[in-house]
């Protein structure tokens, strides 16, 4: 069965004890400056360090929860928010205006912009510090592919399970996500930018769904129990429970 193959694949994932799109011409959107993502171009090589090199059984996954992100791994360094957005002008906008501008600015192939309330981000950050790994099925056609998520706030990195099986530590990220908190105190907003590394692997719609779904497993108490089980009580984790939580059939 496909589910059994997925479970077998996930069981090899984690090493024991891991030591620009142009802005709109609208004047309201000119708070944004020219943006490049040079930090993202290094994402493929960085993920090869972040993902495990040796494999252990799925049941041993919980042992890594207090380890570093990866041995010798330096978290991705995104461009600061003030290199993307004119923060002085942003301070004159309402949270609703900023949300709309941020979303519209990132429309375009390979870029996703969403926002969340500061309180929700603090909850996500706290939970991610204890539970940094998860698997998310992405529905396609008559079945699904499985994504492996790894978190080190303010970053989330996603890669395909099948790609990891084929390439091991050379597997490249499909999607990188950065959370910007510079205006969290004054506007009660955290800006989230997603960059699709390989547009042949994910559409913008799929990338946005993955980002929002991953966040839901940290922010929804019922779903978080599954994520917590995956990281802390892996003997009790069942992948079919994730499928059911997302209203996907167990194949």
UniProtKB/TrEMBL annotation:
GO BP annotations, alphabetical order: mitochondrial proton-transporting ATP synthase complex assembly
Keywords noted in UniProt: Mitochondrion, Transit peptide
A GO term from the CC aspect: mitochondrion
Cellular compartment(s): Mitochondrion
InterPro entries: ATP11
PANTHER family given in the database record: ATP SYNTHASE MITOCHONDRIAL F1 COMPLEX ASSEMBLY FACTOR 1, CHAPERONE ATP11
Assigned protein family: Belongs to the ATP11 family.
Protein name per its UniProtKB record: ATP11
Protein species of origin: Arabidopsis suecica (Swedish thale-cress)
């Amino acid at each position: 069965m496909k589910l059994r193959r997925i479970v077998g694949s996930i069981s090899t994932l984690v090493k024991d004890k891991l030591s620009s799109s142009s802005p709109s011409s609208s004047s309201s959107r000119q708070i944004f400056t020219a943006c490049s993502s040079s930090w993202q171009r290094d994402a493929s090589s960085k993920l090869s360090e972040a993902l495990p090199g040796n494999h252990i059984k799925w049941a041993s996954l919980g042992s890594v929860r207090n380890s570093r992100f990866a041995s010798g791994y330096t978290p991705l360094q995104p461009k600061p928010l003030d290199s993307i957005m004119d923060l002085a002008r942003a301070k004159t906008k309402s949270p609703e205006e900023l949300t709309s501008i941020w979303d519209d600015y990132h429309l375009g192939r390979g870029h996703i912009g969403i926002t969340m309330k500061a309180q929700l981000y603090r909850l996500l950050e706290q939970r991610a510090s204890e539970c940094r790994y998860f698997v998310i099925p992405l529905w396609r056609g008559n079945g699904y592919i499985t994504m492996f998520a790894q978190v080190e706030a303010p970053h989330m990195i996603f890669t395909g399970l099948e790609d990891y099986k084929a390439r091991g530590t050379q597997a490249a990220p499909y999607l990188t996500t950065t959370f910007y908190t510079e205006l969290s105190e004054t506007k009660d907003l955290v800006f989230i930018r997603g960059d699709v590394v390989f547009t042949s692997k994910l559409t913008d719609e799929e990338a946005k769904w993955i980002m929002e779904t991953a966040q839901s497993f940290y922010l929804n108490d019922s779903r978080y129990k599954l994520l917590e089980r995956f990281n802390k009580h892996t003997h009790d984790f069942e992948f079919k429970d994730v499928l059911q939580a997302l209203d996907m059939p167990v194949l």
